[in-house]
Amino acid sequence: MKITVLTLFPEMFAALDESIVGRARKEGKFQLNIVDIRAYTEDKHSKCDDYPFGGGAGMVMMAQPIGSAVEACDPEHRARRVYLSPKGKPLTQEKVISLSEEEELVLLCGHYEGVDQRAIDLFIDEEISIGDYVLTGGELPAMVLVDCVSRYLDGVLSPESLVQESFSENLLEYPQYTRPVEYRGLTVPEVLRSGNHAEIDKWRREKSLELTEKLRPDLLNGKGGNS
Ligand code: 9D3
């Protein structure tokens, strides 16, 4: 998979040099290209935003630098082109999996009040939001998407992690413990130290169900959601 991110703030993406995503990139499990939209402006002062027609607060990202950047990075429109937007469809795990099956993604990050509608109409396939709260731009959402998608690429996670995840789908995770056995008077549940794997599995399933009923009962009635 090749992911190209178009942004006015390329340095924010240093976060993706770290941890599991960073290692996956270094091992060539996927390619991540962070592209500075400003490199494509035709304005003599490298301007990439301007005042909104009709008035109103804030600035709007200009169509030209975005269009030129998209066409330079994906000239034959092989990529699925996603604009991270507060108006987009909310991201789901199902969507993450389907995006992880694409050969190429282009992720466009807006900033300020958004981007000129013509850039969206001409160059974007779909709009995705990461939830109903207001951020300052699409950079963190793009990083969220790269993080979630990269977990499904071959060789990034162990197959057993993903299998286990699919078994416990729609349940919250059971509590985890590591050494020491006692910390500030609190001890690790006996069953986890028993070596009896049938009993351990049973305890974990029970805890998962109990936690889900208590914290996220909405997950138990079919399709998930937050109601
Ligand atoms: C005044 C109306 N605002 C819309 C709610 C304008 C506006 C707010 C925030 C325009 C852009 C932004 C920046 N946010 C994103 O680019 C964004 C976002 C988000 O704010 N929340 C959840 N998902 C996303 S994806 C991109």
Q: What does the model show?
A:
The chain is an alpha/beta fold and 227 residues long. It folds into two domains: 149 residues, SPOUT methyltransferase, trefoil knot domain (Alpha/beta knot, 3-Layer(aba) Sandwich), CATH 3.40.1280; 57 residues, Trp Operon Repressor, Chain A, CATH 1.10.1270.20. Helices cover 33% and strands 18% of the residues. The protein contains seven helices and nine strands; from the N terminus they run E-H-E-E-E-H-E-H-E-H-E-H-H-E-E-H. The strands form three sheets. The protein has a five-stranded parallel sheet. Helix 1 links the parallel strand 1 and strand 2. Helix 2 runs parallel beside helix 4. The chain is elongated. The mean pLDDT is 96. Ligand 9D3 binds next to strand 5.
Summary tags:
227 residues, alpha/beta, Trp Operon Repressor, Chain A, 2 domains, binds ligand 9D3
CATH topology of the largest domain: Alpha/beta knot
Total E-strand runs: 9
Q: Report the order of strands and helices.
A: EHEEEHEHEHEHHEEH
State the oligomer. single chain
Q: Characterize the main sheet.
A: 5 strands, parallel
Q: Decide which structural class fits the backbone.
A: alpha/beta
Distance between the termini: 35 Å
Sheet with most strands: strand arrangement: 2-1-6-5-7
**CATH 4th-level superfamily of the largest domain:** SPOUT methyltransferase, trefoil knot domain
Low-pLDDT sequence parts: none
Query: Which percent bin holds the helix content?
Result: 25-40%
- If you average the pLDDT, what whole number results? 96
- Rg over C-alpha atoms, rounded to the nearest angstrom: 22 Å
Can you tell me the number of structural domains? 2
Q: Return the CATH architecture of the largest domain.
A: 3-Layer(aba) Sandwich
Into which percentage range does the β-strand content fall? 15-25%
